[in-house]
Each structure stands twice: as C-alpha cells, then as structure tokens.
Amino acid sequence: MKVSHASGPKCAGGTALLVMLSLLLLGGLSPAAAQRKEPPPSRAAVQFSYAPIVKRAAPAVVNVYARGRVAAQPPGLSGELFRDFFRDRFGMSSERVQSALGSGVIVSPDGVIVTNTHVVKVGATSEIRVVLADRREFDARIVLQDEKTDIAILRIDGGDGKFPSLQFDDSDNLEVGDLVLAIGNPFGVGQTVTSGIISALGRSEIGRADIQSYIQTDAAINPGNSGGALVDMSGRLIGINTAIYSGSGGSHGVGFAIPSNLVRLYVESALSGKKIQRPWLGARLDSITREIAEGLRLSRSSGALVTRVHKDGPAAAAGIEPGDVITMVDGHEVTDARAVNYRLATRGIGHAVQINLIRKGRAVALQLPLQPPPQIGADDVRNLTGNHPFDGARIANLVPHVADELDLDEAGGIVVLSVRSGSVAERLNFRPGDIIISIGDQQVTSVVDLEKLLARRTQLWRIVVKRGRQVVQLQIPG
C-alpha cells in the first residue's frame, strides 16, 4: 500500500446502509425495524437526499488545469541532481511540457481559489486554467504556494467579481462519525460528489510535511480530486482533499484532507499580501516510538519528545527542557512532533499557547508565547550569481532557526534556501534544504568560504551535497 496524491473517486459503496442510517437519524425507522429490513414507512423517507447541500456547495468547486515546461532527464545519467547542465553542450532537448489536472475551491466572491501545490506546480512557466461548474473558463495565477503544507492559493483573472464561494467551518469542531461530502473532478470525468463519514482526525503520519493533522474520510477520493472540497452537512468547507492511501491508485476508502483551519491561515495571508510566518518553537522534537515510551516509562507511545532546546529560543524562555514529552497544546492532544507544529501554526504568531508535558513522570503545564523566527543576518545569507553551478541559488549559514524552518537536524554548515526559476542551479536540480558539504577538496563552513571557492576558475567542479540522509558527489564541467 502507498500514499498518493488524490488528483478523484469511484462511487461510494454501502448506499443501502447509508439510506437506512439516514432514516434512523430522521426517526423514520426504529432500530428493530431496521434490523428486520422492513421497507421505509413513507415516500418522503425514501427521498432523503444530499441534493440541497450539493446545490449550495458544488458551484464553488472548480476544475484546475495546469501545464508548464520542466527539465527532461538526459539519457545515461541517473540521480535527481544530474540535470540540464549537460544538455546545452550535447545538443539534447532540455525541456518537456508537463500537464496536471486537479480541483480547486473558490473561497472568496472575487475569485480566490484554494488547491494543492502539487496540482499547479508543473514547471517554471506554469499556465493555469480553471473551469467552473457552469462551464465558464478563466485563466488564473498563483498568489501563494507552500510545498510543506501542499496548499496553493490562486486568483482568477477576469470575471465579474461575484463568483460562487464556500465559507470555512471550524475544523476543530469535527468529530469522528460526522457525515461529509467530497466534491472534485476524479480522473477528469467532470465534477463528481461522493459521500461518507469522518473516519479519523489528527492523522499526522501521512507524507513528508512537517505540519500535519489530516482529516481522514471514507468518502471516495481518486486522482483528480486533489484540491477539491470536503464539506459538512451545512455545506461549509472543512477540508481540502489531498491524498489517498492506495496500492492501485484508486480509492479504497482511505482519503485525507487538509483541515480548514490551516487552509484559512494561508487564504488570509494571500488576501493581506503578507508572507506566511510560522511560530518558531526554538526546539527540536521527535515522535514517541514504543521503545522511547518504554524507556521513559510512559503509558503509551504518543506525544512529542523534546530532543534539543536552543538557549535563546522561545521554548527555553518558557521553561521547556530536553527530555520533556509534549502531550497537549491548548487543550488539544498531540500524537507526535508534526501535530505539535500544526497546533502552533494554526494558533498563529502573537498569541500564547498552553503546553502540557510530562517531565520525569510529572505533569507540567507551561505558557509558550508564539514568536516569529529571528531574521537572518546580512552576514549569514547570500544570493549567488556567476559562472558556477550555484548561479541563482540563495544560500545561508545553517543557524538554529534556519535549520528548524527547513526541518533539518544539522547544526552548522551551508544550506540552500531557494533557487531562482530558470537559473543554472535550478537546471542542476538543487533544492531548498540541500546542504553543501564541500567544493573540490575544501570543506564549506560558511557563506564567505563558499563565495571564495566559487570565485576560482576550474575545468571540473567537484561538489558534495547532502539531501536528507543521502550524500551525493557531483562532477560538473566548468
């Protein structure tokens, strides 16, 4: 089995069971009658329908078509770091057109759309087209996108500014068993609605994002549903469908949606023109495994273990110590480190949260003010240009708050913060989070060191880069 992006759904099973459940909820059948499988008592009971909810919500769900040019892999080269640097020299085609199909949700009458980053990120020069439920088509542009949360905000170009839209509901009020509808464009067949329930809340072990607390649903979600709406029985938006758990690529009744409370933060940021800033904890967290729980004599393997506290960070000021196990944030249980980050992010900078933790078997409650990370100093960051492989890369000294932002365990060294579109660094597939270990025979310890090494002329660049747990050695012609 694997987790894959939902890019839509097969027909949900158990229709008869749903009808019987609906009749029970409406008082149309007694439990005894339901067990005897008696026919419904009236025509009105048979005609129970989700249609009023769909009529309210479906017009705000759009199809999203994106296409862009991406670098093609040259023959005979393996590994993601080997990319287009070689193509100009050998006359190979350096680009190909890639397309993506997904869904989106209009959340403001002036045409603001929420979708998934993986739906619209298909190249450096993406072209995005949205099709409304009434078949009107518009171009759209990306206002904000974040790969860590897989949230992207678009804005429609043109129109009358009176688009149908969905209102947000509070995803913290959801309960397992609540009825939900998923609306999207599965397999590109057109807008489709499926029904189900909330199967679980706070799923944080799905995918790679460091801020996660997914809603799990059994409403059928399939490729094409990515970016579509998960709505409650009031027709309000409670989540953005984003992934499925499947071995075949089809729906097995295990779908995941980003909660509306996190999505709302990104929409508000896009509308205000402000950059999203997540609160800086100033500590490194690890999830509690069964072995760690046994070693710490915990009753269950749940919570986030504090492994390191930065002396000048908010966690240290609040009194959090290495070895503490965080169990709750503002009254919400947290099952792992990702759930802690989610709770801090949705609370937002400028507020304070109550942290409940276990310290050496004792229950402790602390107040943690939520602060932005410190600004990177001018001496800690560089925008690189020149005749070298890192042309177009923005790099920084790996100070604690930068390591936390990029979810890196390293302390010290040089890291890639971003890569300019169309640059040499992008063509070589350098990415944010890549740690530059050495150039030639020289270890790189600061941005100043790197600048000096890149200023030298050479016929062959020998570069060692660490990405995640993989260390890659590159040899690039000068």
How does this model look, in words?
With 478 residues, the chain is an alpha+beta fold. It folds into three domains: 1-274, Thrombin, subunit H, CATH 2.40.10.120; 283-369, Roll (Pdz3 Domain), CATH 2.30.42.10; 384-477, PDZ domain (Pdz3 Domain). Helix content is 18%, strand content 35%. It is built from 13 helices and 26 strands. It has helices at 15-25, 31-35, 43-46, 51-57, 87-90, 117-120, 260-272, 290-295, 314-318, 337-347, 400-405, 424-427, 447-454; strands at 2-5, 61-71, 95-108, 112-115, 127-131, 137-146, 151-156, 179-184, 192-203, 214-217, 229-231, 237-246, 255-259, 283-287, 304-309, 325-329, 332-333, 352-359, 362-369, 381-383, 393-397, 414-419, 435-439, 442-443, 460-467, 470-477. Strands 20, 21, 22, 23, 24, 25 and 26 form a seven-stranded antiparallel beta sheet that branches. It has a six-stranded antiparallel beta barrel with strand order 8-9-10-13-12-11. It has a six-stranded antiparallel barrel with strand order 2-3-4-7-6-5. Strand 8 and strand 9 form a beta hairpin. The longest helix is centred in the middle third of the chain and has 13 residues, at 260-272. Mean pLDDT is 81; it is low at 8-29 and 73-93.
